[in-house]
Design goal:
Blueprint lengths: L1 H13 L9 H27 L4 H27 L7 H27 L6 H22 L6 H50 L8 H16 L3
Helix pairs in contact: 1-5, 4-5, 4-6, 5-6
Protein backbone atom coordinates (compact mmCIF):
# COMPACT_ATOMS: atom_id res chain seq x y z
CA UNK A 1 0.00 0.00 0.00
CA UNK A 2 2.85 2.41 0.78
CA UNK A 3 4.40 1.80 -2.63
CA UNK A 4 1.03 2.35 -4.31
CA UNK A 5 0.58 5.63 -2.40
CA UNK A 6 4.06 6.71 -3.45
CA UNK A 7 3.20 6.15 -7.12
CA UNK A 8 -0.17 7.90 -6.77
CA UNK A 9 1.38 10.94 -5.05
CA UNK A 10 4.18 11.24 -7.60
CA UNK A 11 1.70 10.93 -10.48
CA UNK A 12 -0.68 13.49 -8.97
CA UNK A 13 2.04 16.09 -8.47
CA UNK A 14 3.89 15.64 -11.79
CA UNK A 15 1.25 14.58 -14.34
CA UNK A 16 0.83 18.23 -15.43
CA UNK A 17 4.45 18.25 -16.64
CA UNK A 18 3.52 15.77 -19.40
CA UNK A 19 0.31 17.46 -20.55
CA UNK A 20 0.42 20.27 -23.15
CA UNK A 21 -0.34 23.71 -21.76
CA UNK A 22 -2.95 24.40 -24.47
CA UNK A 23 -4.82 22.38 -27.06
CA UNK A 24 -3.99 22.63 -30.76
CA UNK A 25 -7.33 24.39 -31.39
CA UNK A 26 -6.43 27.04 -28.83
CA UNK A 27 -3.00 27.61 -30.40
CA UNK A 28 -4.55 28.00 -33.86
CA UNK A 29 -7.20 30.50 -32.72
CA UNK A 30 -4.54 32.55 -30.95
CA UNK A 31 -2.54 32.69 -34.20
CA UNK A 32 -5.63 33.84 -36.09
CA UNK A 33 -6.31 36.49 -33.46
CA UNK A 34 -2.73 37.78 -33.69
CA UNK A 35 -3.00 38.04 -37.46
CA UNK A 36 -6.32 39.86 -37.23
CA UNK A 37 -4.91 42.16 -34.55
CA UNK A 38 -1.97 43.09 -36.76
CA UNK A 39 -4.35 43.90 -39.63
CA UNK A 40 -6.49 46.02 -37.28
CA UNK A 41 -3.42 47.95 -36.15
CA UNK A 42 -2.43 48.74 -39.73
CA UNK A 43 -5.95 49.94 -40.48
CA UNK A 44 -6.04 52.10 -37.36
CA UNK A 45 -2.71 53.68 -38.29
CA UNK A 46 -4.06 54.57 -41.71
CA UNK A 47 -7.16 56.14 -40.13
CA UNK A 48 -5.08 58.16 -37.67
CA UNK A 49 -2.72 59.36 -40.39
CA UNK A 50 -5.72 60.62 -42.34
CA UNK A 51 -6.86 62.66 -39.32
CA UNK A 52 -3.58 64.40 -38.57
CA UNK A 53 -4.01 68.09 -37.91
CA UNK A 54 -7.62 67.78 -36.83
CA UNK A 55 -8.96 68.54 -33.34
CA UNK A 56 -10.04 64.91 -32.92
CA UNK A 57 -6.54 63.69 -33.66
CA UNK A 58 -5.03 66.08 -31.06
CA UNK A 59 -7.45 64.79 -28.41
CA UNK A 60 -6.51 61.22 -29.27
CA UNK A 61 -2.79 61.99 -29.15
CA UNK A 62 -3.06 63.63 -25.70
CA UNK A 63 -5.07 60.68 -24.36
CA UNK A 64 -2.57 58.23 -25.84
CA UNK A 65 0.39 60.09 -24.33
CA UNK A 66 -1.20 60.05 -20.89
CA UNK A 67 -2.09 56.36 -21.21
CA UNK A 68 1.46 55.47 -22.28
CA UNK A 69 2.92 57.34 -19.29
CA UNK A 70 0.57 55.56 -16.89
CA UNK A 71 1.40 52.20 -18.46
CA UNK A 72 5.11 52.92 -17.94
CA UNK A 73 4.34 53.55 -14.25
CA UNK A 74 2.42 50.28 -14.12
CA UNK A 75 5.44 48.39 -15.52
CA UNK A 76 7.71 49.99 -12.91
CA UNK A 77 5.35 49.00 -10.11
CA UNK A 78 5.09 45.47 -11.49
CA UNK A 79 8.86 45.15 -11.26
CA UNK A 80 8.81 46.41 -7.67
CA UNK A 81 6.08 43.92 -6.76
CA UNK A 82 8.06 40.95 -8.09
CA UNK A 83 9.67 38.46 -5.70
CA UNK A 84 12.16 36.02 -7.23
CA UNK A 85 10.35 34.63 -10.29
CA UNK A 86 6.85 35.45 -9.07
CA UNK A 87 4.65 38.43 -9.76
CA UNK A 88 4.11 39.13 -6.04
CA UNK A 89 5.39 37.99 -2.64
CA UNK A 90 1.94 36.60 -1.92
CA UNK A 91 2.15 34.36 -4.99
CA UNK A 92 5.59 33.16 -3.87
CA UNK A 93 4.25 32.22 -0.43
CA UNK A 94 1.39 30.35 -2.05
CA UNK A 95 3.82 28.15 -4.01
CA UNK A 96 6.59 27.89 -1.39
CA UNK A 97 4.41 27.44 1.70
CA UNK A 98 2.78 24.11 0.85
CA UNK A 99 6.03 22.59 -0.48
CA UNK A 100 7.96 23.61 2.64
CA UNK A 101 5.19 22.19 4.84
CA UNK A 102 5.35 18.92 2.87
CA UNK A 103 9.13 18.91 3.28
CA UNK A 104 8.88 19.17 7.08
CA UNK A 105 6.14 16.51 7.17
CA UNK A 106 8.05 14.01 5.01
CA UNK A 107 11.38 14.59 6.80
CA UNK A 108 9.68 14.12 10.19
CA UNK A 109 8.13 10.85 9.07
CA UNK A 110 11.39 9.55 7.61
CA UNK A 111 13.04 10.16 10.98
CA UNK A 112 10.19 8.52 12.89
CA UNK A 113 10.22 5.48 10.60
CA UNK A 114 13.98 5.04 11.05
CA UNK A 115 13.63 5.33 14.84
CA UNK A 116 11.29 2.35 15.04
CA UNK A 117 12.74 -1.09 15.66
CA UNK A 118 11.58 -4.51 14.56
CA UNK A 119 9.17 -3.36 11.84
CA UNK A 120 9.26 -3.31 8.07
CA UNK A 121 10.28 0.17 6.96
CA UNK A 122 10.96 -0.04 3.21
CA UNK A 123 7.43 0.85 2.05
CA UNK A 124 7.01 3.77 4.43
CA UNK A 125 10.51 5.01 3.64
CA UNK A 126 9.71 4.88 -0.10
CA UNK A 127 6.45 6.83 0.40
CA UNK A 128 7.97 9.56 2.56
CA UNK A 129 11.07 9.77 0.33
CA UNK A 130 8.71 10.32 -2.62
CA UNK A 131 6.97 13.13 -0.72
CA UNK A 132 10.40 14.54 0.16
CA UNK A 133 11.35 14.49 -3.53
CA UNK A 134 8.12 16.29 -4.47
CA UNK A 135 8.62 18.97 -1.81
CA UNK A 136 12.27 19.63 -2.71
CA UNK A 137 11.43 19.74 -6.43
CA UNK A 138 8.88 22.51 -5.92
CA UNK A 139 10.99 24.33 -3.30
CA UNK A 140 13.78 24.49 -5.88
CA UNK A 141 11.33 25.66 -8.54
CA UNK A 142 10.06 28.41 -6.22
CA UNK A 143 13.39 29.65 -4.89
CA UNK A 144 15.98 29.24 -7.64
CA UNK A 145 16.65 32.58 -9.38
CA UNK A 146 16.26 31.15 -12.89
CA UNK A 147 14.08 28.52 -14.48
CA UNK A 148 16.00 25.42 -15.56
CA UNK A 149 15.17 22.34 -17.62
CA UNK A 150 13.11 19.56 -16.04
CA UNK A 151 16.04 17.14 -16.11
CA UNK A 152 18.18 19.66 -14.21
CA UNK A 153 15.51 19.96 -11.52
CA UNK A 154 15.20 16.17 -11.31
CA UNK A 155 18.96 15.55 -11.00
CA UNK A 156 19.38 18.28 -8.40
CA UNK A 157 16.35 17.09 -6.43
CA UNK A 158 17.41 13.43 -6.48
CA UNK A 159 20.87 14.44 -5.25
CA UNK A 160 19.39 16.42 -2.36
CA UNK A 161 16.99 13.59 -1.45
CA UNK A 162 19.80 11.03 -1.39
CA UNK A 163 21.90 13.38 0.74
CA UNK A 164 19.10 14.07 3.24
CA UNK A 165 17.87 10.47 3.56
CA UNK A 166 21.45 9.17 3.85
CA UNK A 167 22.25 11.80 6.49
CA UNK A 168 19.16 10.82 8.50
CA UNK A 169 20.09 7.14 8.22
CA UNK A 170 23.72 7.56 9.33
CA UNK A 171 22.93 10.07 12.08
CA UNK A 172 20.25 7.83 13.58
CA UNK A 173 22.46 4.78 13.23
CA UNK A 174 25.21 6.64 15.06
CA UNK A 175 22.72 7.67 17.76
CA UNK A 176 21.46 4.07 18.09
CA UNK A 177 25.04 2.80 18.45
CA UNK A 178 25.71 5.38 21.14
CA UNK A 179 22.54 4.39 23.01
CA UNK A 180 23.49 0.70 22.74
CA UNK A 181 26.94 1.58 24.08
CA UNK A 182 25.37 3.33 27.07
CA UNK A 183 23.08 0.37 27.70
CA UNK A 184 26.01 -2.05 27.61
CA UNK A 185 27.97 0.21 29.95
CA UNK A 186 25.06 0.31 32.42
CA UNK A 187 24.70 -3.49 32.21
CA UNK A 188 28.42 -3.83 32.97
CA UNK A 189 28.09 -1.60 36.02
CA UNK A 190 25.08 -3.51 37.32
CA UNK A 191 26.80 -6.82 36.66
CA UNK A 192 29.81 -5.65 38.66
CA UNK A 193 27.77 -4.19 41.54
CA UNK A 194 25.38 -7.15 41.90
CA UNK A 195 27.53 -10.12 40.92
CA UNK A 196 31.25 -9.58 40.57
CA UNK A 197 31.61 -7.50 43.74
CA UNK A 198 29.90 -10.17 45.87
CA UNK A 199 31.31 -13.27 44.19
CA UNK A 200 34.91 -12.02 44.21
CA UNK A 201 34.75 -10.61 47.74
CA UNK A 202 35.64 -7.11 46.55
CA UNK A 203 33.64 -5.46 49.31
CA UNK A 204 35.06 -4.70 52.72
CA UNK A 205 33.06 -6.92 55.15
CA UNK A 206 32.77 -3.99 57.53
CA UNK A 207 31.26 -1.86 54.75
CA UNK A 208 29.00 -4.52 53.18
CA UNK A 209 25.73 -3.23 54.67
CA UNK A 210 26.54 0.37 53.78
CA UNK A 211 27.61 -0.68 50.27
CA UNK A 212 24.36 -2.55 49.66
CA UNK A 213 22.33 0.41 50.92
CA UNK A 214 24.12 2.82 48.58
CA UNK A 215 23.82 0.27 45.77
CA UNK A 216 20.05 0.05 46.25
CA UNK A 217 19.70 3.86 46.33
CA UNK A 218 21.66 4.19 43.09
CA UNK A 219 19.59 1.42 41.51
CA UNK A 220 16.33 3.13 42.47
CA UNK A 221 17.51 6.34 40.86
CA UNK A 222 18.70 4.51 37.74
CA UNK A 223 15.37 2.75 37.14
CA UNK A 224 13.34 5.87 37.89
CA UNK A 225 11.84 4.98 41.25
CA UNK A 226 12.87 8.40 42.61
Amino acid sequence: MYYVLAVVCATAFFVHEFVPVNSLEFVNIVKEHSSSKAERSNTRKAVLDSQKGTELYEKYYLAKTKTDELWADVLVMKEKEKFLNFKTFQQFLGEFGWSFGLFIYSLFNIIMVRLRNGESKSGETALHSTLLFISIYFINWATLPSDYSKITYVIFTVSMCVLIVSSVYFLLRSKRKYIDHLKNTIRSFFHFFYKDADENDLINPNKRIEFRKIRMELTDKAVGNE
